[in-house]
Structures
1.
Amino acid sequence: MTSTNAQIKTACVIGDPIDHSLSPLLHNYWIKALGLQAHYNRVMIKADRFNVDVTNCFKDRNFMGMNITLPHKQAALALASDASTEAKKAGAANLLIRRKGKLWAHNTDIEGFTGPLIKARGSKGWEASTIIIIGAGGAARAALIGALKLRPYKIILLNRTDAKAQALAKAFGKPVLALPWSDRQNALRGADLLVNASAAGMAGKPALDLRCEGLAPDALVYDLIYTPLETPLLAAANTAGYGVLNGLDMLIGQARPSFEAFFGVPPPADEGVKAILVKTLEVQP
Ligand code: NAP
């Protein structure tokens, strides 16, 4: 039987802006590798059209769901009839699918964050660890929820705008605490994991104003940014001999459960897609 467009399952990523999203490249690579009758698009949606446009997408029976990026992650959660515990805790969703005829929201950024960390350092043995998270936006919140799953001794939040870190620490309670941005250098002393979940260090933005010295000797520095793949923070951490992780594995890690939710099969286990993404990022302006 020949295939028709009516048989092609679709999914997409929505945001504003959306041109630079790597999600179509990622998902279409997996679709091709598995030989699925499917396609993954990018769609620009303006905030004032969010509810109408998203609802319209789901009217198509072949439309399996969407990933959501800035600035719509909170609106996605608000629109859904129900949501996973992770999405509710994060106060944001990056995945919308249909479940029993209703919209269901989930947040795979949390799993995306913990996956590379667990691969690098395991899921056990964090009881005595101190984890530092820089930032208090959506990525920091996902990192915080992921870090809490490791049951560390302490999680210290540091954010340029102190009040936001304090509010987040208050919302989550022990073992999360916020320290003043002005104390950030001291706060690092002896920490086992430093996570940059802020936008500082992204291409076109100033580097994070923090030296990664004073961390525990076997500390890991995890920058959630992937443009560039090596931020000034990661370059300094490398030079200092710390373990490093960039945001690319998190990007792939959040896409894996999304792909399975859309198309009903897990993406290929191999890391072939990573080389394609690295190549693309290296030539991107
Ligand atoms: P967001 O909600 O806009 O939050 C941005 C955060 O960065 C805020 O806490 C902000 O502090 C802080 N910040 C911005 N410029 C700063 C500077 N110069 N110095 C210190 N702090 C600064 O953004 P987001 O969604 O959380 O994203 C944050 C980063 O995570 C981005 O770089 C993004 O690329 C990355 N990310 C990666 C993935 C992945 O899959 N790898 C997924 C999501 C996000 P204030 O509160 O003071 O403004």
2.
Amino acid sequence: MDLDTPLQYVKGIGPARAAMLGAKGLATISDLLYYAPFRYEDRRNVKTIAKLAPGEKAAVIARVASAKMSGFKRRALGLFEVVFQDGSGAELLARWFHGERYADSLTPETRVAIFGKVEWDRASGARLMVQPEVEILSDEEDGEATLHSGRVVAVYEAASKISTRVFRSLLNRILGEVQLPDDPLPESVRGRMELPELAQAITWVHNPPQDAEIKLLNEFRHPAQTRLIFDEFFWLECGLAFKKNKAREASGISFSVTPRVREQIKLMLPYKPTGAQRKVVQEIADDMKRPHPMNRLLQGDVGSGKTMVAAQAAVIAIENGYQVAVLAPTEILAAQHYAYFRRLLEKIGYRVVMLTGSAGAKEKRQIKQLIEDGWAQVAVGTHALLQEDVKFSNAGLAIVDEQHRFGVRQRLELIRKGEQPDVLAMTATPIPRTLALTIYGDLDVSTIDELPPGRKPIVTKHVMENAVEGVYSFIAQEVRAGRQAYVVYPVVEETESSAEIKAAEKMFMHLSEKVFPGVAVGLLHGRMSAGDKETAMREFKTGATKILVATTVIEVGVDVPNASVMVIEQAERFGLAQIHQLRGRVGRGAQQSYCVLVTGKMSDIACERIRTLVESNDGFYIAEMDMRLRGPGEFFGTRQSGIPGLRLADLMRDSDVLEMARTEAARLLEERNPDEMRAVVKYIQEHWQRRYGLVQVG
Ligand code: ADP
Ligand code: MG
């Protein structure tokens, strides 16, 4: 039996259980060793029933004397009551609400370990435990009881029919029989971090020392746990660092920033750039000058002026004779970028085209031709630009907006046809630092941390839906003052169902006919044709319509500086980051802007979200809160931790460990101790490359 032994060959597992474990991603002994308990229980206090005192927490080994599911009236609660005896003369009553799941297994004579807080049952005078933990003990293995009680025990998440008790037994046996892995962590790192050896850590995690502090264990702060958490981050960070180094060394285009480039940029710029914009343009230009591919993420809150920065990078590429691809996640946004880049770039003599999925076949063919010929110097588009049959004659720079929305970053590789173009990704969804370190650990990051001058912070208010009339008169007042307003309904673009569209359409009718009869109201939703969407946007942009009723299709990037009010209906149904994005559609001009969040009755979490938004305009703070309230997985639209390969580590709980792992990984690469490096590269290649999806490490 070794670490790679498939679980079905392990005694006590067999094919059926192996399948259940397999469904949890546990295939080998090694997987099982890393299947860490999610909780620990202090069952050191084992007593006979007669000795149980009210108020204490204790464990008891006993047999079921009788069990009953309670009668008709209480059925809804599924009240399940069991009387236990252990030969000490007293009885213990246990009570579970929704206890159906126990009813089958706790039949008379079943032997169990029960663990919980002791009370007196006034009605019967017996000792009572409400909702205790219970584990069924098998009769054959008498010594087993001592594995499950009388000590600090690990509690595992069950896998189908494999209970925590079975996990405990299995791991106990495996730990006794298998040769635990050698420690791959460089000795120097382990020493500095004062971490236990790997084998020791694995043993302790399943079988904590009996003097271990239960609180420490349950907060995942025990050195054994820290060791395993550190490992996950450390190998990830090493892998990312290697990848980044490698990309840095690959050959790419070396652009030159000539006086002519500066001249063109000066001619193009409609405003004086902010200090922050100047700083990031410098960072980008420095990257572009190096003869290696740029991989840079430009982050900045909504409205911070990222597009103007990107346009300057485009000038550098074009003046060096290269083409620029601009990728946007939606057609609306692509159309807007197209308009923006044309406005800036055509003025200084460049040719800009747009390619989206909704263009006609003939038009598409023509545009593709213009791109292939090299006539088009800038090609703006959606996913359509990434299609195989789009060939650039000489792509030098890819600008990717809201790149997280593209999901798979690899798709970008498609555009890396021929030479290695530089990549500038832009995002207005600030990424909490811990996430940025793991997800974008291999990118360089530039941050615009200053808004263009003259912006007034948006005032955000919360209004209950029964007071929405007041909001409407406020809109009317702003419109009379020459401003414009958005009214947004909670429909997610990708899933806009016809029912939800109808709701938006109905509201549109209601608002345009009843509430604002004399005002031009527009409608925009994801199910409209590209042409209709464009018309709706254009009419709002030119001020032909004053109020735009919309779904979240306007979430990203839409830019109408004259709009001063953003009303979000049923705001409790939106996510934090999403509302912040929506809110960023206003406050783009010099006038005071407002965001009104209209809600019905709310859950606690929804209240918390709304409160955060009313109190803060800071995208980074909001992103942090969003991750806290939703968990990083949800936050990033991926499952679980959001980072493949993290089993025990938790980005929020363990952010300090992550920072340490990152520091240590950087140090390792800096010191370049050849023996350590060789061992580390080998270990990552063998164990972590696939797990983290790191392509070609080392
Ligand atoms: P982002 O893409 O970061 O959300 P945009 O690039 O769309 O922001 O810019 C938001 C608005 O601010 C636009 O109307 C843009 O023209 C304007 N803007 C950008 N930079 C400046 C600047 N330096 N001074 C004044 N206005 C600016
Ligand atoms: Mg933008």
